[in-house]
Design a protein that fits this description.
The chain is mainly α and 416 residues long. 75% of the residues lie in helices and 1% in strands. It has helices at residues 2-23, 29-37, 41-68, 72-87, 96-127, 132-156, 164-179, 198-201, 213-229, 231-241, 253-256, 258-305, 312-340, 346-376, 385-406, and strands spanning 378-379, 382-383. It has a two-stranded antiparallel sheet with strand order 1-2. A hairpin with a 2-residue loop joins strand 1 and strand 2 (382-383). The model is unreliable at 192-203 (pLDDT under 50).
């Protein structure tokens, strides 16, 4: 019992630090970019596209390495240390184009660690005979707690527009890299001695999942919904901060503590993550993903009509809905991949899921949103946030309707 308890604690700390290092800057970098550096919106969209570009190939590549040649926890350690060292250079950069390349390098190290985190956790739970659908969410929820605490540390210390957010992130990343060496072993599974094709030799087996109609459709909609995942992280804090331009809202709590308001989204996550096992068993993956998609419609729509005074309830409700919108897709999708694919391709299959959501999806979302906002919704330097969020809501609604008709899945309560 003591050993099992120790394993859960160790995995919990890993998840806490995994998202702490991201939360230190992900929500606040918009203020740093626009307010401190004075750089442009299209360039900012390009910065967020690095999350997607690095997720297109890197999670799959490193997933293949973990599946075939190297312990996942050791690879995880190396990547976090390299990511932290790269982030340390951010404060020295005074050109947006140079910043782009350093961010791309840092994200090429960081983004694969999310999929590896899932693989390490799932492997440790299964090795110790836990039910991943039941026992993973209470561990993963501490990742969200880490994200929240990092946001609060950055905001309450007065660093939401300073270089310090990157130093906080880098320190956490290097610490996690060192800690990772103490994690439960997650070695590559031994390959069978039968004659292997070049696809198997190179570890590309996971790509065969695209030959399965249901999985291919699942990955396609993962990409389409992935385009929406980072939009409120990209623009949410600066959207709330922009209310300072209106004298009636300039001294409001929302403007002064915009990051704290945004952290309600992550607090909401902690509740909805814990609800995932119930919803998956009760309704199945298709309905859970549909709930997520319609939650995104509400997330964007409520932001569109909210304000720091009479519409404050809409902003708060939008943040509460975010927990359902994000986790019912991201965490449930990861569990679906884990429970429907062979353990021999565990890490590379998770890498594929990351490639479609945080990879292609994120690139499409960040680049297209940046161009649309600059071209159609920015007038004399002022952004039309009502139209921006309404456009995003319509997009999410179209994706939800298409998914409801095209994705066929018969729910078995014994599975997900």
């Amino acid at each position: 019992m003591e050993r099992i308890f120790s394993i859960k604690i160790r995995l919990t700390l890993m998840n806490f630090l995994q998202f702490f290092v991201w939360g230190a800057w992900l929500i606040t970098i918009a203020n740093y970019w626009f307010a401190t550096k004075g750089w442009g919106g299209a360039e900012f969209g390009a910065i967020f596209s690095t999350l997607g570009i690095s997720s297109i190939f890197m999670p799959t590549i490193f997933g293949i390495i973990a599946d075939r040649w190297m312990n996942a926890e050791k690879l995880y350690s190396i990547l976090h240390i390299l990511s932290g060292i790269t982030v340390l250079f951010f404060p020295q950069i005074n050109d947006p184009h140079t910043f782009f390349w350093f961010m791309l390098i840092a994200m090429s190290f960081y983004m694969p660690t999310i999929a590896l985190n899932y693989s390490i956790t799932y492997n440790a739970l299964k090795t110790n005979h836990f039910d991943v659908v039941k026992d993973f969410p209470p561990i993963r929820v501490w990742g969200t707690v880490g994200f929240i605490i990092a946001m609060w540390v950055t905001n309450l210390s007065g660093n939401k527009a300073t270089d310090m957010q990157f130093y906080i992130s880098a320190a956490g990343s290097i610490l996690l890299g060192l800690y990772s060496l103490t994690l439960p072993k997650c070695p590559p599974l031994k390959q069978t001695a039968t004659k292997s094709s070049w696809v198997e030799v190179l570890g590309l087996n996971a790509f065969k999942l695209f030959a399965n109609y249901k999985m291919a459709l699942f990955f396609l909609f993962s990409m389409l919904l992935g385009a929406a995942l980072q939009l409120t992280n990209m623009y949410g804090d600066t959207f709330l901060d922009d209310f300072r331009k209106m004298p009636i809202y300039a001294d409001s709590f929302v403007v002064k503590y915009s990051t704290i308001i945004m952290s309600i989204s992550q607090i909401s996550e902690t509740l909805f993550i814990l609800a995932i096992p119930f919803f998956l068993k009760k309704f199945g993956i298709k309905n859970v993903m549909l709930i997520s998609m319609f939650a995104w419609v509400l997330r964007f729509g409520l932001f569109s009509y909210g304000d720091p005074a009479g519409g404050l309830w809409m902003i708060v409700l939008s943040c509460i809905v975010y927990g359902m919108a994000f986790d019912f897709f991201q965490i449930s999708g990861s569990l679906f991949v884990e429970t429907t694919t062979d353990s021999n391709i565990r890490s590379s299959a998770q890498g594929l899921f990351m490639m479609m959501t945080n990879g292609f999806g994120s690139v499409i979302g960040s680049v297209v949103s940046g161009e649309l906002i600059d071209r159609f919704f920015t007038h004399n330097g002022t952004k039309d946030w009502h139209s921006i969020w309404l456009t995003f809501a319509i997009y999410a609604l179209v994706v939800a309707v298409l998914f409801s008709f095209m994705f066929k899945h018969k729910h078995d309560p014994a599975k997900i």
